[in-house]
Automatic annotation (TrEMBL):
Domain spans labelled MTTase N-terminal: 39-155
Name by which UniProt lists this protein: tRNA-2-methylthio-N(6)-dimethylallyladenosine synthase
Entry's family note: Belongs to the methylthiotransferase family. MiaB subfamily.
GO molecular-function terms, A-Z: tRNA-2-methylthio-N(6)-dimethylallyladenosine(37) synthase activity
EC number(s) on file: 2.8.4.3
Residues in Radical SAM core domain copies: 179-414
Keywords: 4Fe-4S, Cytoplasm, Iron, Iron-sulfur, Metal-binding, S-adenosyl-L-methionine, Transferase, tRNA processing
Record InterPro entries: Elp3/MiaA/NifB-like_rSAM, Methylthiotransferase, Methylthiotransferase_CS, Methylthiotransferase_N, Methylthiotransferase_N_sf, MiaB_methiolase, rSAM, rSAM_horseshoe
Length: 480
């Protein structure tokens, strides 16, 4: 399948890097899993890492129901699109894709088409009326019901379940790692979000925040280590508010403690996490990161805007000074080399030129390694859509976004240049995109490093001397 390019999402990272963030906006198709089951499932996932992780849970539920996965849509009996609603563009991409899928359905009329994820939750039953080829609409908390819903569709009906839950964490479901390179895997540690940022649709599509049983998270990480995985990324919309307590109240675990438990499993397991919220990230988390070499020194800390009035309108519950204080804490506890990345929204409601300049000056101050950058897209039902006018003209939003992107390119390059002349520990994930004589991996700070293969292979930790860089990549040579 051709990659679908989201034009309001611009960065220079590899898919591995992009999906490590809860902000990612790329597309994944599940790999083949051929165990001789009678029916075939094809899943395409859009949006963030939570969605990619959910598709692995869905694959597992469907496997129990007699489905292998296929990467060839023409072979599929059931086609799922696990969708994203974060910006209007994300939804439009899915609608366009449905148009293309219609071609396959016409050739194979029994093909079942399901919409999962955030768009299913946002649009509910109305999706069935708007998109005639859709048979099934299932929200993020209803995947356990898929076997029943598939039965209903097999019986000739259309089926919908978009109930949100306060408890569902799919803790007991063993995900089938279809999106993985066999080296790194995602583990969902919580679901939903209680933050109500005024621009954001996630609290409506994913429901209330809930934390998953800490023991089930540690068991999942342990199983991954046993299978030879070298890296896990703990996922949540706001990992710093992770809080789990046992039913009898004798045990309670916060995010720093969870990180520690996972880090202790093996010194050879790299631990990453995403996303941190500036209002919640604690010094305890930073000191835990410092204490364990295998917790990667990289933090995705989305700021959204550098101006305090805009941050208030966004309901982010921190201001510029608070954010700078958190960045200073990161730099003083973890050092200048700790990677920091961000998400930025250009042209939020009522943003003036001076306020936009504050975003640029904050970027200059923080020196982000990279960012996900967007222009504001009003989402129906959000606080901003109800209370604020989307009054910045599109061309102004785009021009401000361009300025933000240019600033980011500057700081990315400056940060990458600092890495030249140093040896980095790189976990190899794949061949480089350009040559099978070169390998691609990431250093501790989540930067992509390319180097000649020599005798190294996927899953190895390699010390690489970096001698060159571009805006998005470091280039080096393995040293023994
Ligand atoms: N939980 C994460 C963000 C998840 S959404 C956090 O709080 O940081 C990923 C990113 O999409 C957000 O950080 C924001 O930059 C962007 N985004 C969300 N809603 C948007 C909208 N309506 N328009 C433009 N960008 C948006
Ligand atoms: Fe959306 Fe804010 Fe929650 Fe992130 S923290 S998912 S931006 S509401
Ligand atoms: Fe993720 Fe998009 Fe939903 S960013 S939580 S898939 S709206």
């Amino acid at each position: 399948m051709d990659p679908i390019v989201d034009l309001d999402f611009i960065d220079n990272r590899t898919p591995e890097q992009a999906t490590a963030s809860a902000a990612a906006c790329d597309t994944h198709v599940t790999k083949d899993n051929n165990t001789g089951k009678s029916r075939k499932l094809y899943i395409e996932s859009y949006g963030c890492a939570m969605n990619f992780s959910d598709s692995e849970i869905v694959s597992s539920i469907m496997f129990e129901q007699g489905f292998d996965t296929t990467s060839d849509i023409a072979q599929a009996d059931v086609v799922f699109l696990n969708t994203c609603s974060i910006r209007e563009k994300a939804e439009q991409t899915v609608r366009n894709r449905l148009g293309q899928i219609n071609y396959h359905k016409r050739k194979k009329p029994g093909m079942v088409i399901g919409i999962l994820g955030c768009m299913a939750e946002r649009l509910k039953k109305s999706l069935l009326e708007e998109e005639k080829i859709v048979d099934l609409v299932v929200g993020p908390d209803a995947y356990r019901d898929l076997p029943n819903l598939i039965n209903e569709v097999d019986g000739g009906q259309k089926a919908v379940n978009v109930l949100l839950s306060r408890e569902e964490t799919y803790a007991d479901i063993n995900p089938i790692r279809l999106n993985s390179n066999g080296v790194s895997a995602f583990i969902s540690i919580m679901r939903g979000c209680d933050n109500m940022c005024s621009f954001c649709v996630v609290p409506f599509t994913r429901g209330r925040e809930r934390s998953r049983d800490a023991h089930s998270i540690v068991r999942e990480a342990e199983a991954l280590v046993a299978q030879g995985y070298k890296e896990v990324t703990l996922l949540g919309q706001n990992v710093d508010s992770y809080k789990w307590a046992s039913e009898d109240g004798t045990e309670s675990v916060n995010f720093a403690q969870l990180l520690e438990r996972v880090a202790l499993l093996s010194p050879d397991l790299r631990v990453r996490f995403s996303t941190s919220h500036p209002k919640d990230i604690t010094d305890e988390v930073l000191y835990t990161m410092k204490k364990y070499d295998n917790i990667c020194k990289y933090i995705h800390l989305p700021v959204q805007s550098g101006n305090s009035r805009i941050l208030e309108l966004m309901n982010r519950t921190y201001d510029r000074a608070w954010y700078i204080n958190r960045v200073d804490a990161i730099r003083s506890i973890l050092g200048e080399d700790c990677g920091i990345s961000s998400d930025m929204i250009a042209g939020f409601c009522t943003e003036t030129e001076e306020e936009h300049q504050d975003t640029l000056s904050l970027m200059e101050y923080v020196q982000y390694d990279y960012s996900y950058m967007f222009f504001y897209s009003e989402r129906p039902g959000t606080l901003a859509a109800r209370k604020l006018e989307d009054d910045i003209p599109l061309e102004v939003k785009k021009r401000r976004l361009d300025e933000i992107i240019n600033k980011q390119r500057e700081t990315s390059l400056a940060r990458n240049k600092r890495d030249i002349g140093k040896v980095h520990r790189v976990l190899v994930e794949n061949f480089s995109k350009k040559s099978d004589q070169q390998l691609s991996g990431r250093n501790d700070q989540n930067k992509v490093v390319i180097f000649d293969k020599k005798h190294y292979k996927k899953g190895d930790y390699v010390n690489v001397f970096v001698h060159d860089c571009s805006v998005g990549t470091l280039f080096g040579e393995a040293v023994d």
